[in-house]
Q: What sequence folds into this?
């Protein structure tokens, strides 16, 4: 069975001005106390994936953000161990908007007027958006 535990580590500034690692903090279960949740610092997540230790920093600066990221990563590792494929919650989203995708594929998003010639977009030659007057009359008369 795969290791699906994620630990939290914190960088702590020592009295002599150096930065040191805290001990691994296991992901807490249940609710956090308000004082615990608002604790600020530099937090990192630590887990083992494919036999290698992986560390990544947490986007937020509160302990609550670190716990939320750790729980999401644990769910991701559990799903991966069970054979489910879903995107990593710690990686940026690679989705594109419709406009970005259309520009990448070379589609034209300009609107055409009825009296102008169709441009090179796919819908210009189809009559998908045009209703015939006889069809409109059949709807209104019934």
A:
């Amino acid at each position: 069975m795969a290791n699906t535990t994620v630990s939290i580590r914190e960088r702590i500034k020592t009295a002599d001005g150096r930065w040191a690692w805290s001990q691994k903090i296991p992901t807490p279960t249940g609710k956090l106390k308000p004082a615990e949740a608002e604790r600020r610092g530099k937090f990192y997540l630590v887990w083992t994936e494919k036999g290698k230790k992986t560390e990544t920093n947490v986007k937020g600066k509160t302990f609550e953000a670190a716990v939320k990221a750790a729980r999401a990563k644990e769910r991701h590792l559990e799903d991966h161990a069970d054979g489910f494929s879903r995107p990593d919650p710690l990686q940026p989203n690679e989705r594109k908007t419709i406009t970005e995708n259309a520009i990448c594929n070379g589609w034209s998003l300009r609107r055409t007027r009825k009296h102008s010639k169709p441009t090179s977009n796919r819908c210009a030659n189809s009559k998908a958006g045009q209703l015939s007057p006889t069809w409109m009359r059949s709807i209104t008369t019934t």
